[in-house]
Structures are given as C-alpha cells and as structure tokens.
Write a structure and sequence with these properties.
Order of helices and strands: EHHEEEHEHEEEEE
Structural class: alpha+beta
Distance between the termini: 36 Å
CATH class: Alpha Beta
CATH architecture: 3-Layer(aba) Sandwich
CATH superfamily: Gcn5-related N-acetyltransferase (GNAT)
Largest sheet: 8 strands, mixed
Number of strands: 10
Number of helices: 4
CATH topology: Aminopeptidase
Shape: globular
Radius of gyration: 15 Å
Helix content: 10-25%
Length: 158
C-alpha cells in the first residue's frame, strides 16, 4: 500500500539513508546543500512517501524569508531510484504544497530545473539571489499569497 504522510522525527535516519543512496556523497558539494548546511528543516511541512511501510520518497522544507515575506525553501526532493518515473516526486510536491497556508507562508522557492518544477507553478525569478553564487536560471519561486507581493532580493534561510 502506498501512502503519503507527514514526516516524523523518528524518520530522520531512514530519510538520511535514502538521501545518501539517491544523491551520493557528492550531494554535499551542491549549492542547495551548502546553503542549508547546519539548518534544521521545518518538519511541519515535510512529507514522506511510504510503500508497504518503507520510506521510498521524501520532500523537506526549510524556513526562509525575502525582505518581510516569510517563505519556505523546498528541498531536497528524493525518490528511491527503483521507483523513479512513477509520479512519486510529483505526488510529494503536490501534497506538501497543498498543506501550506498562504496566510502565513507567502512563497516557496527552490534550486532546481524549471522543466520539472514548472508543472507545480514554479518560475525562474531573476530578481532573487542567495548568499552564495547560484546560477540564476536555477532559482525558482512560486507565490502562494493571495495578496500581491514582489519577490526581489536575497533569500535568507533560518
């Protein structure tokens, strides 16, 4: 049986093992990992995908802001390679974003490929940047707020 659930603290080691299997040791050199280094993800928004009670997918979120706008940074999104191309990542992103309340979280950002993430409404935002150099076409954002906001400036994770 397949099910998406909220991540629990007790899932940590299983998720880290899956992350290591999927992304390998080179993941620590990726800019997205470097900017999250030392930070704790917001478990309230993070989800896992279970198949027969085994974690085969995970999406995590980190708190961030741009000026006075509170947001979340999505990542990493990981799926066991034995189950890739079955919509698990898509289901994790859709389910997790559906549970974010736009009254308190104004936007979601990530570092990734627009070809994949545009299906969720993410767009390249050339007005955003991080504290480290990241290719501009990899910085994507999705506004959740019902009120108009202008996302310009540095993305600060905390």
């Amino acid at each position: 049986m397949n099910v998406i659930k909220s991540e629990k603290i007790s899932d940590k080691n299983k998720i880290l093992t899956l992350e290591e299997d999927v992304l390998g040791p080179g993941r620590f050199a990726r800019p997205s990992f470097r900017i999250r280094e030392g930070l704790v993800h917001d478990i309230k928004y993070s989800k896992i995908f279970l198949k027969n009670k085994k974690i085969i997918g995970s999406v995590r979120y980190f708190n961030c802001n741009i000026n006075s706008n509170k947001g979340l940074m999505l990542g990493p999104l990981i799926v066991d390679q034995n189950y890739k191309d079955r919509g698990i990542g898509r289901n994790l992103v859709n389910e997790s974003i559906k549970n974010i309340k736009p009254a308190s979280i104004k936007f979601v950002t990530l570092i990734g490929d627009v070809d994949y993430y545009k299906q969720f409404g993410f767009e390249i935002n050339y007005k955003l940047f991080f504290s480290i150099n990241i290719r501009k076409e990899k910085i994507l954002s999705k506004i959740l707020s019902m009120e108009p906001i202008d996302l310009i400036g540095q993305i600060n994770l905390y």
